Amino acid sequence: xKIVNRQVFLAMPAGTIYSKYVPCMxxxxxxKGDSLxxxxxxxxxxxxxxxxxxxxxxxxxxxxxxxxxxxxMDFECEQRDGLFNADQLFAIWERADVAQLIARLQKTxxx
Length: 111
Prior knowledge:
Blueprint: E1 2-5, H1 6-11, E2 17-22, E3 25-35, E4 40-44, H2 54-67, E5 79-80, E6 89-93, H3 95-110
Antiparallel strand pairs: 1-6, 2-3, 2-6, 3-4, 4-5
């Protein structure tokens, strides 16, 4: 893993795994999409609940809380980040980090 600034991050390719970073604290995990002029597209990992709009997203979560429903995930639905904080840092997962995570997740399927 490495920590980079916003300028370096925007130059990174789509498919980069990252978290927003503030000193000693990590945000949620994302997959970077294409960069735009001043922001980028991203794929959420933690809350990638399949939904058509924010109302449906909210309703599905409330229903799941109340009734224990399973939530269908959608890992192919990017959204625009819209972050314009020039000082934002990013924790970038390197290839070996991603490989280790995949191996660990694979173990959970075998248990």
